[in-house]
Amino acid sequence: MRGKAWLWSLLVVASLGWSVQVQAACSAVATTPASFGSVSSMTVLSTPQSTSTGNAGLSCTPLLLSVLGTGDHFYATITGSTQGGMLGPKGDVINYTIYGNNTTTYPITRGTRFDFGGNGGIAATYGLVFGPGTKTLPLYVRSIGGSNVAAGLYTETLSILWAWDYCSGVNLIGICLGRDTNSGTSQLTVSMLVTNDCQITTPPISFGSAPVVSGFATVSGQASVNCTKGSAYTVGLSDGQNPVSVGGRRQMISGSNRLAYDIFVSAGTTRWGSVGAARRASGSADVNPGNGLGTGSQIFNYNAKIYTDQATPPGGTYLDNVVLDVGF
User: Fold this and answer.
1) 22-195: which CATH architecture?
2) For domain 198-327, which architecture applies?
3) How confident is the model over 54-99, as pLDDT tens digits?
4) What is the distance between the alpha carbons of residues 27 and 135, in angstroms, rounded to a whole number?
C-alpha cells in the first residue's frame, strides 16, 4: 500500500507539471507603413535616407515560459513591384534596401526567404514570443543615394509572406508541448514625398574703382541654378537693401552716401527684378533653358551697370546686398 501511495503522489505532481503551460500564437496582421516623410530632391540625390516600421506584419502573443531554440524559425519572403523601388508620378524610381534590424548587417534580398531566427536570432532579441504583451517584428529601410528624380509622392507596396515554426508551449521543466507552424501574408507600403529644391551659385559683383561714375565699366556675370528634375521655376533678384523705390533703381551705400546701379537680363537693358514679369523663367536660361535638370546647372547671364546720369558721390567703399530667389 505504501508503494502504491508513493506512486500515486508522484503521478499527481507530474500531472500538475504538464498542465502549467502558456500557449503562444503567431499570425499575419496589418502592417504599419514605413514612411521616409518629406525629403528634398537634392537630399535624395546626395544622401541615403533611413526609416522603419515597428510592425512588419507578424504578431505573436507571449509565452511566459519559453526559450527559443535553434530549431525555431520565423521566415519572411518579401516581394515587390516590377520596378524594384518606390515609383513616382513621372515614372522615376527610388531604390532602397530592406534590413532585418537597425544596422546594415542583415540585408534582405527580395524573393529570398529571410530567417529572423530562434535562439540568438533577431526574433529572440525583440522578445517575439516572450511576455509581457503582444510583440511584432520591425523592418528597416534605407534608400540608395544617387537617385535623380522629379518631385512628388513615391510609393511601393511590398508583399511579405510570413512562415513560422517554433515551440509554442512548454511545461514547468522546459519540455516542448507543441509547435506553432503556420504562414500568412501581409502588405507593407513604403513611401517618400520628394520636394522641389535648388542649388544656387551667385558670385559677388565687383565694379572695381573709378574716380567718377562714368569711369565704371559694365560688369558681366552669371547665376548658376540647379533645380529638381522636371521642375518649372522662376528666378528673381530683389531690389537690394536701398532701392530708390519698389522696382526702382538699386543703390549701394557708403555711410549716408549712395551710388545707383542696376542688374539687367543677359546682355540687354531689361531690368532683372523679383516680381511678376521682371522675374526670369527657367525656360529663359541662357544655358540649358527649360525645366530643371536635377544633375546639371542652368545658367542665367546678366550685366550690371552704374548709372552715369547721377552726380559722383564722395569717395568710399559702396555696398549692397541683393537676394536671388527661386519660385516653383
Assistant:
1) Sandwich (2.60)
2) Sandwich (2.60)
3) 999 999 887 654 567 778 899 999 999 999 999 999 999 999 999 9
4) 11
Give the mean pLDDT of the chain: 89
Q: Exposed, middle or buried: residue 42 (CB in 10 Å: 0-12, 13-18, 19+)?
A: buried
Other C-beta atoms lying within 10 Å of the C-beta of residue 69: 14
**What is the predicted pLDDT for the residue at 172?**
57
Which triple of cell numbers denotes residue 80? 515587390
Which residue, among 121, 95, 123, 125, has the nearest Cα to 110 in the 3D structure?
95
Among 12-26, 48-62, 96-110, 301-315, where is mean pLDDT lowest?
12-26
Q: What is the pTM of this model?
A: 0.84
Q: Evaluate whether 22-195 and 198-327 have a shared fold.
A: yes
State which amino acid sits at residue 40: S
Domain boundaries, the chain: 22-195, 198-327
What separation in angstroms does the CA of 280 have from each of 21, 231, 296, 326?
76, 14, 18, 9
Exposed e or buried b per residue across 136-172, where buried means at least 16 C-beta atoms within 10 angstroms of its C-beta: bbbbbbbbeeebbbbbbebbbebebbbbbbbbbbbbe
Whether a cis peptide bond, with omega within 30° of 0, leads into 204 is no
